[in-house]
Amino acid sequence: QVQLVESGGGLVQAGGSLRLSCVVSGIIFSINDIRWYRQAPGKQRDLVAHITSGGNTSYADSVKGRFTISRDNAKNTVYLQMNNLKPEDTAVYYCYCRYWGQGTQVTVSS
Fold first, then answer.
1. 4, 10, 40, 55: most buried by Cβ count inside 10 Å?
2. b/e burial code for range 69-101 (CB count within 10 A of at least 16 → b)
3. Nearest CA among 49, 38, 47 for reference residue 81
4. In this structure, are residues 53 and 34 in contact, taking their beta carbons and an 8 Å threshold?
5. pLDDT of 47-74, one tens digit each?
């Protein structure tokens, strides 16, 4: 059974940083691409960042230069380092690898 468990969300002031983690189990982690999505209230779920099995990364234009996705295959974990956070980054952040995690709330105050 595939499980994705996100953590690291919270309340932060604008300009601050958070690091999200997603621990994945039930699959061969190292051969899978992993994605982070986010969903703000009343809005659709949008792709934020993507990391391939080979470590190549891509980002939504809105987070380029501020967010960094990385992975640790030894720990079956993917990270999302978020710097210079803005109020518009407020959302529930989800990890995705064929299945969805439960999400972690990120709230950025102005």
1. 4
2. bebeeeebbbbbebeebeeebbbbbbbbbeeeb
3. 49
4. no
5. 999 999 999 999 999 999 999 999 999 9
